[in-house]
UniProtKB/TrEMBL annotation:
Top-level division of the source organism's lineage: Eukaryota
Protein name stated in the entry: Ankyrin repeat protein
Length: 315
């Protein structure tokens, strides 16, 4: 029995000896290195720049691809950080393509400007400068657009005037980005005053079809004010715009909005809503207008919006 116990103790010591642990750790380390070597061969940042750009195109909208590359892919590991941000020579064509496709600046335009070597910018820095510039231009263009929208003079907002404004500060603007005041281009146009509905529809079509505006982007003016273009159009009874957003671009009926709208029958009174769908908002507006003595003729467009929002089948 003593011999058997000694053999068992010796066996347990061998199992727990540092040498055995060292061997197992080396095996784990070699396995990890083997897996890392195999994974590095199929890493995204190791692919050709053209393929990397097309991959990022599927996960990010224009003018946001640089953000995905810098803040989502580059921080994954040291290899990705070196490949995308540190090694300027290997990733130069990728950043030049981002600069050309998203910001409208080509490499030839950047090289045509004479500058000393100390002031010469690398591709990543040129993309950063272009991104800051497009953010500033988006804010400036939105400010002037809001001035046109809120003007009391008729004819201040037209499709041609809006196009000239966007081309002056664009043509590459971040129309789907919420600006510093919390608004979006599409919702701001739908709020236009003293403008015909046909003019607003023409501006909406221009933003959606030619400027890449998305119809379901919410504003963020405040915790009590967050609206979509469909919500604003439904509350104001603009049936042609509601029909266009629903049938042509499949705007979401289930998106909920919050805010306050002025009544057409009694302009001094407003109705507030919180986390309501476009259909619920239109019905609330109809009830409030009816209580203020609105005629059946004045509720025709609002009733049309309600019928459109109640339809289940979309064209």
């Amino acid at each position: 029995m003593a011999d058997a116990s000694d053999d068992a103790a010796t066996y347990s010591q061998k199992r727990r000896s540092p040498r055995c642990l060292f061997r197992s750790s080396r095996q784990i380390e070699s396995t990890t290195n083997f897996a890392a070597a195999n994974s590095s061969t199929c890493a995204v940042w190791g692919l050709p720049e053209e393929i990397v750009f097309h991959i990022v195109t599927f996960v990010a909208a224009p003018t946001t691809r640089a953000t995905v590359l810098c803040h989502q892919i580059a921080p994954l590991c040291r290899a990705s950080y070196r490949a995308l941000l540190n090694n300027q020579q290997s990733s130069a064509s990728l950043w030049d393509k981002v600069l050309r496709e998203d910001y409208g600046v080509s490499q030839s335009m950047a090289d045509s400007r004479r500058s000393c070597k100390r002031l010469r910018r690398c591709p990543v820095e040129r993309v950063r400068d272009a991104h800051v510039l497009i953010q500033d231009n988006t804010e400036i263009a939105y400010f002037y657009l809001s001035e046109m929208v809120q003007s009391r003079c008729k004819g201040d907002l037209t499709r041609s005037k809006m196009c000239r404004l966007l081309d002056e500060y664009g043509p590459h603007l971040r129309t789907n980005t919420v600006v510093s005041s919390g608004g979006t281009y599409l919702v701001e146009v739908c709020r236009a005053r003293n403008v015909k509905e046909s003019t607003i529809l023409a501006c909406v079509k221009e933003l959606v079809e030619s400027r890449g505006a998305q119809v379901d982007v919410l504003t963020r003016e405040s915790p009590q004010s967050s609206q979509t273009a469909l919500c604003v159009a439904a509350a104001r009874g603009m049936s042609t715009i509601v029909q266009y957003l629903l049938q042509v671009h499949s705007a979401s009926r289930d998106e909920r909005s919050s805010g306050r709208f002025r009544l057409h029958t009694a302009p001094k009174k407003t109705i507030s809503f919180r986390f309501q769908t476009a259909l619920e908002i239109a019905e609330m507006m109809k009830d409030a207008e009816s209580k203020e003595g609105a005629t059946a003729q004045s509720l025709v467009s609002l009733n049309h919006c309600i019928r459109l929002l109640r339809e289940d089948n979309r064209i």
